[in-house]
Amino acid sequence: MKNPKPKIQNLKFKVSGQVMLLTVLVLSGSILGASTIAGYLMFLKVRGASDVTNSAKAIFAADTGIEWELYKQFKNPDYPKPSLSNNTNFISSNDTQKIKSIGESNNIFRAFKMNLQGATTTLP
Description:
Elements: H1 5-50, H2 52-74, E1 88-94, E2 98-105, E3 108-115
Antiparallel strand pairs: 1-2, 2-3
Protein name: Type 4 fimbrial biogenesis protein PilX N-terminal domain-containing protein
Keywords: Membrane, Transmembrane, Transmembrane helix
Organism: Candidatus Wolfebacteria bacterium CG1_02_39_135
């Protein structure tokens, strides 16, 4: 009669090899997924940084928002929001202590924030 013990050890090594192979595949897939996501995010950042024309348009739109809020605060509170003709837009907020304006042009966003704390409220 043959000893059945070597067959059990042989099966143990096969299961161990399968677990190791499965672990390597799962780790490789995780690393591949993480690097793909990181590459895509870098692509979006580089594309946004290299689009100089739309970046400049967004900066000027944000500046327009700051100037509009300052004009409303110090001169005429009922002055209407200016319309920009070059496919840009801005969103601004004013709580009398800080003004925030976000300019947008073709999904490129630039923002300005102005703090008015300690500033005089009367013009010379």
